Amino acid sequence: MTLLSAKDIKKSFGDLEVLKSINIEVEKGEVVSIIGPSGSGKSTLLRILTGLETADSGTISIEGSTGLVFQQFNLFPHWSVMKNLVDPQVCVAKKSLAEAEKTAREILAKVNLADKENAYPCELSGGQQQRVAIARALAMNPDILFFDEPTSALDPEITAEVLKVIRQLAEQKMTMVIITHEMNFARGISDRVYFMENGYWIAQGTPDEIFENSSNERVSNFINKLNQMV
Amino acid sequence: MTFSTMLETMSAGMLRTCGIFVLTLIGSLPLGLVFCVLRKSRFAVIRWTIRGIISVLRGTPLMLQLLVWYFGPYFLFGANVANWRFPAILIGFVVNYAAYFAEIYRGGIESMPVGQYEAAKVLGYTKVQTFKKIILPQVVKRIMPSITNEVITLVKDTSLAFTLAYQEVFSLAKQISAAKSSFMPFVIAGVFYFVANYLVEIVMDRVEKSMQYYQ
Q1: Running DSSP on this structure, what letter comes out for residue A172?
Q2: B137: closest chain A residue by CA
Q3: Do A121 and B133 touch (CB under 8 A)?
Q4: In chain B, how many domains are there?
Q5: Which of A51, B102, B119, B189 could crosslink B32 through cysteines, CB 3.0-4.6 Å?
């Protein structure tokens, strides 16, 4: 079943064409990674798919609800971890407080933060904050969860704990679209990988097709460069 | 005139001063928010009108504004201003302070990271919910030091009501001093303002501390 289908998405900021006719489809239970150099339009696409920006043209159809995990977490700092998870459920999804708290506790346990429900975001490490942000998105029970470079603001050691949580979600067949620069992670977790440059997909395929034997020189160069860095 | 009768006479003025102070805050803190929201209206006419009003309120002396509020109705419409003294003072103070508070709120709101709005939007909060539940509480924390400044200034500015011969503590001090050839009323008034502001500092410090549980 196709949960997300976007066709011929175009977006410009002033004279700058950020997205030039983008198509993307995501099936239920699929994990799709979007890779490519900075400034290529990946984030803009995600912002359009989650309603933070509007496309200049094209059609988007999404079955069900979406959630988004930001690079900078964007937790609400004046609320405890618990309230961050509970308030959207009560205020937006109209659940009862008891029900919302039950859901919140279950999800916090999933992301290994059961002992932090009364903490405030400023008391948590970056990795913990990002796991709370994932939990907050999950608490709204989205059909598709989007990630916009979820580990780019984290140091390598802490990155691992966040990636582990995302891997667990993949095992549970959560439908996810992930922008990332973690190539090994993308390779391991994805069903399909899209490579964006200058507002186009310049390659797409299975992780093996992209990472092992890409016929596209630009793609293999990009991946080789990233591998050399590590 | 003994010290104690002097103090007694002046205590009525202190009460009136406190009256101006409290009522001005009650009126201007919310009105400032209204100004602030209108100043960000999507209608240019409203935006520019409010900008103009704020500009005039901040750009002319409060003393002059008080005179205009008091005598304006008489000179413009020939209205009877017999019972108009205290309302005119209150309107003058409330509107003037609202202009300053509006700009403080605006500074606070504009300092909020856009990520807070985006997170709220993605979660499905409406604009009003986002402002009330997520933005405003954080703005209040950010602007508290500036608000304290204004509140302290207000304590002292209440003395401007003497322009309209309102018998608050400063007017009384002047009158008693002149009538009794005594310096003491000024000392009493000075101590009164200082103590009042010391209390303001203590209270505002508590308020700020109550919001220090997060960064």
Answers
A1: T
A2: A78
A3: no
A4: 1
A5: B102
Is B121 in the A-facing interface, judged by CB distances under 8 Å?
yes
Q: Taking the CA of residue A179 as centre, how many other CA atoms within 13 Å lie in the half-sphere pointing to its CB?
A: 23
Residue B125 in contact with partner chain A when CB distance is under 8 A = yes
Determine the distance in angstroms separating the CA of A217 from the nearest CA of chain B, rounded to an integer: 36
How do the pLDDT tens digits run along chain A, 230 residues long?
899 999 999 999 999 999 999 999 999 999 999 999 888 899 999 999 999 999 999 999 999 999 999 999 999 999 999 999 999 999 999 999 999 999 999 999 999 999 999 999 999 999 999 999 999 999 999 999 999 999 998 988 889 999 999 999 999 999 999 999 988 899 999 999 999 998 999 888 899 888 887 777 888 888 777 777 65
Q: Where are the domains of chain A?
A: 77-142
Establish if B77 touches chain A: CB-CB under 8 angstroms: no
Q: What is the ipTM of this complex?
A: 0.93
What gap in Å lies between CA A60 and CA B122, rounded to an integer? 16
Q: How many CB pairs under 8 A join A and B?
A: 55
Backbone angles phi, psi at A120, to 5 degrees: -100, 150
Searching chain A, which residue's CA lies closest to the CA of residue B138? A78
Intra-chain end-to-end CA distance of chain B, in Å? 55
